[in-house]
Amino acid sequence: MIERRPPSSLWEHFLSPEENERVTRSGFARRAGAGARPALLVIDVQKYMVGSAELGDEELAVYPSSCGAAGRLALEPTGALLGAARRAGVPVVYTKFELATDGSDAGVYARKRTLLPIEGWCLEGSLGAEIADEVAPQKGDLILVKKKPSAFAGTHLLQLLIDRGVDTVIVTGGSTSNCVRATVVDAVSLNFRALIPADCVFDRFAASHAISLFDLDRQYGDVMWSEDVAAYLQGIGDIP
């Protein structure tokens, strides 16, 4: 039987021996654990983020913000985790990052990123703004539109979680270094526990993905594999 690698194997090679020792000696990366009432957050798993393998070398011309194969690889484990959450009666909340076609609601984001007036980006009503078919929402799931990286910024996510008595958020989606990270940091700042299934989050850049997971695991939440999160959900049972 092949021993499964821990999620820390994704980032440890970026650190020197001295840095790895510093993590241990400074008391970082303890397990925060999970509570009894989780919610599953699916952050911006939209077509502009995962692109299309069928386009081959033309993918970035059609979906210039695609995370490519990394995004598509996360779809299957995310779908499996969604199934586990729904069977357990756990709230499922999707976010969609959408901007007005004229960029009028982009705010300071427009100072850092060129508005792309194309069908394969995240403009309202575009193909790119749609949630990926492989993880499409189902009846009873909630969908929030956001304009900022964090799922909490400018949405009523906090109020929804409070109403449902949620104490733990499971954060999936993309990108790891941007919207996932911002959402986890805000969640923990609001005193929610956070689980980050490493195979259900993705990024455009491998280094950004790995180091963001390291930072999140070190300081904010517990980075795990999705099958371990699914086992946790199976033990939750139906939440009244």
CATH first level: which class?
Answer: Alpha Beta
Characterize the main sheet. Answer: 7 strands, parallel
In CATH, the topology is named Rossmann fold
Low-pLDDT parts are: none
Helix content: 25-40%
Number of domains: 1
Number of strands: 7
Going by CATH, what is the homologous superfamily? Isochorismatase-like
Can you describe what's shown?
This protein has helices at 17-25, 47-50, 59-62, 69-73, 75-87, 109-112, 157-163, 176-189, 206-219, 226-236, and strands spanning 38-43, 92-97, 142-146, 168-174, 193-197, 201-202, 222-224. By secondary structure, the protein is of the alpha/beta class. It has a single domain (35-236), classed as Rossmann fold. Strands 1, 2, 3, 4, 5, 6 and 7 form a 7-stranded parallel β-sheet that branches. Helix 5 (75-87) runs parallel beside helix 10. The longest helix is centred in the last third of the chain and has 14 residues, at 176-189.
How would you describe this structure in keywords?
single chain; 240 residues; alpha/beta; Rossmann fold; seven-stranded parallel beta sheet; 10 helices; 7 strands
In short:
With 240 residues, the protein is an alpha/beta fold. 35% of the residues lie in helices and 14% in strands.
Helix/strand layout:
Layout: H1 17-25, E1 38-43, H2 47-50, H3 59-62, H4 69-73, H5 75-87, E2 92-97, H6 109-112, E3 142-146, H7 157-163, E4 168-174, H8 176-189, E5 193-197, E6 201-202, H9 206-219, E7 222-224, H10 226-236
Parallel strand pairs: 1-2, 1-4, 2-3, 4-5, 4-6, 5-7
